[in-house]
DNA sequence: AGAAGGACCAGTGGTCCGTA
DNA sequence: AGAAGGACCAGTGGTCCGTA
């Protein structure tokens, strides 16, 4: 394990960008001296050495991240759960890792990635951010997209789904619809919507979102054309 | 084999974009009725049925394209050779195939390529352009780049190398140097140079060109810094 | 049951090297 | 010898499904 991550965020100081270097996958070393922002967001106690409420956690075999729950904006998840602010923060962390990979590539005259690629995930892992992985990030990209494109709507959706006690899967499904609405208002070009947004442009457009936009456009076009043809 | 190619170029009429549908790989059918632009450029006689100067060509076993020779701008290659105007024309054909692939992708709501990818080469082959292949196009990309970026210099280089009787490989090697010069005048960002040029942006920057630019920049930077340090 | 992520797979960018 | 291109290979985008 290199310590690229420390270099990455060392100049942040008191900015709003949180530091990682939290939850180690291994339980070899402890550093509990006052949880930092990412730790506070993630509700992950490093190495679980305190054994506060569970017993069999002490053998240090838990590797997986705590599952996400639907939280309101600003709300910290309680229990062995992670909140949605933490989820969105992972996307910002990936963006920072990409920027580092880009800087290294430019400096050494290599091909420079414009997206969060396998190379970036590998780099994040090497830098100690073992809690970042490709399937997870791809799974929630469209949720992050809604958060970037229309934070008001995203926040409202979170509150409603929390209120109803819905699980993360339901909330995730519900994020598609407002995105399709946004696309419909912008000529259906979801690729353009992603590529012109400063934080979103580094993420591949999820297949399902693209399909939903296309299906909805086709369906509305068919409705329009049939109303022209038959309903004068 | 579909006939996408015919659709592709059917609306060209008398424009300067040449038609393909020339030199078939198989020798099953002949169509010799007045060579079109691509045929004239390529100096390829379809199926070689005339057997004009060689004997064993009649068995119809030649598959490979005629090799390139260094020609002046506007010059048609003689003998079983192809000229450089024809080479550059292949890049324009690839661009047209990419545009078709993009149109199909957009219409069916699929991911839309921005570069000449494997998919585009496959499409070109299916459309009957069997004379287009990836290794060849990648091999000469930087030559085409010079042609796009500084046609004067490119033309002058062709004349000099033809005059000297140099082979295609030598000419190809010689194309790197003026490109590095161009990069040096534009902040060494060869990726930016490619991506901001309308015809060039669809081609990947060749590895060797990127390496040469980086090496030359590093070497000049070292020279500058040592002159600062030691030569006051 | 709901969710996290290791690991697989088809098709990619890149180009070598057996071929003519 | 010089050159064209089939075919291979390491690493990609994408996501399934065995796991907890």
Provide an overview of this structure.
Two copies of one chain form a homodimer. By secondary structure, the first copy, chain A, is mainly alpha-helical. Helix content of chain A is 52%, strand content 0%. Chain A contains eleven helices and no strands. Chain A has helices spanning 4-9, 37-42, 84-107, 118-126, 134-139, 141-149, 151-163, 168-174, 176-185, 190-195, 207-230. Chain A starts with a helix and ends with a helix.
Order of helices and strands of chain A: HHHHHHHHHHH
- How does the helix and strand content of chain A classify structurally? mainly alpha
Low-confidence region ranges of chain A: 1-36, 45-60
Number of helices of chain A: 11
The largest inter-chain interface, given as chain pair and residues per side, is:
A-B, 15 and 15 residues
Mean pLDDT of chain A: 81
What is the helix fraction of residues of chain A, given as a range?
Answer: 40-55%
* Tally of strands of chain A: 0
Regarding quaternary structure, how should these chains be classified?
Answer: homodimer
Tell me the major beta sheet of chain A: none
Shape of chain A: flat
Structural Rg of chain A: 20 Å
- End-to-end CA span of chain A: 69 Å
Percent of residues in beta strands of chain A: under 5%
Task: Summarize the entry for a quick read.
The structure is a homodimer of 232-residue chains. With 232 residues, chain A is mainly α. Chain A is built from 11 helices and no strands.
